[in-house]
Specification:
The chain has helices spanning about 55-70, 80-90, 105-115, 135-145, 155-160, 215-220, 255-260, and strands spanning about 35, 120-125, 145-155, 175-185, 190-195, 210, 220-230. By secondary structure, the chain is α+β, with helices and mostly antiparallel strands.
């Protein structure tokens, strides 16, 4: 069963950090041939997105799940966490359904950076070019996933319910803006792996599905890397230069101006 949409149009800030500029050296390392941060998670809960347009919250929690399983900083989000955050940011009333107006992804990131989402610990966010397949795979490989915004065609709902690859429809009818995550590329020629929604029961088939590159390029409208503290192995919640990510990335590799955003 698919859920609801609820992503508001992006605010493309020309001053936003760009992925390609924020690792030391002249170029990002090439992505590994295959990566899968999503399927080891197992169960991605729906997090209230079946009754409310809180996809921006559900997807950031799903990304935190995947990052945590990879790094060993396990985290299990709940419906109350997602709906509570959505209500606090937007004024949504879960008892009546009033003010179910959605949210901007960047607002959710900043809301989490301010410490308002339990378990979600962003240091910084970086925008990336979702029309560049190599850059998307680099982001997934290096940082554990992408917080991805799309204009959702109705056929994607049908493909999700049938657990089919998410691909470009012949005649798209756009349901609205939707926030999802990209977190692997088991078949890099086809496209990245995604989670469009969670499920309401752990016994349901996995929501991890491949999404074609043509779909990414055509229906994407924003993409963010979120650098989580929990992506790095740390004993005290403070990321030190010697701390490493599951792929071996040293925190010290990041540029000083990006490190300063951790303050």
């Amino acid at each position: 069963m698919h859920g609801k949409c609820g992503k508001l149009d992006p605010d493309h800030n020309p001053r936003a950090l760009k992925l390609a500029k924020y690792l030391t050296g002249e170029a990002l390392p090439a992505p590994t041939p295959m990566r899968d941060w999503l399927t080891p998670v197992g169960y991605y809960p729906m997090l209230g997105n079946d009754v409310a347009g809180d996809c921006t919250f559900g997807s950031i929690y799903h990304l935190r799940q995947a990052v945590g399983v990879a790094s060993g900083n396990i985290f299990s989000p709940t419906r109350d966490m997602a709906i509570g955050g959505y209500s606090a940011l937007t004024g949504y009333d879960p008892s009546t359904g009033a003010n179910d107006r959605g949210a901007q992804m960047q607002d959710v990131i900043e809301f989490a950076r301010a410490g308002n989402l339990p378990g979600v610990d962003p240091i910084a966010s970086i925008s990336l070019d979702w029309t560049n397949a190599t850059e998307v795979m680099q982001a997934i490989d290096i940082f554990g996933g992408v917080y991805f915004g799309i204009q959702l065609p109705s056929t994607a709902e049908e493909q999700f319910d049938a657990r089919q690859p998410i691909d470009v429809p012949w005649w798209p009818f756009i349901r609205g803006g939707h926030a999802v995550i990209l977190g692997g590329y088991r078949n890099a020629d086809f496209g990245p792996d995604c989670v469009l929604w969670g499920t309401v029961d752990p016994s349901y088939p996995s929501p991890v599905l491949p999404m074609s590159w043509p779909f990414v390029f055509r229906f994407g409208d924003e993409a963010h890397v979120i650098l989580f503290r929990s992506w790095f192995t740390t004993s005290n919640g403070v990321v030190e230069p010697s701390d490493k990510a599951p792929n071996g990335l040293d925190y010290s590799v990041l540029c000083p101006d990006l490190q300063s955003l951790a303050a």
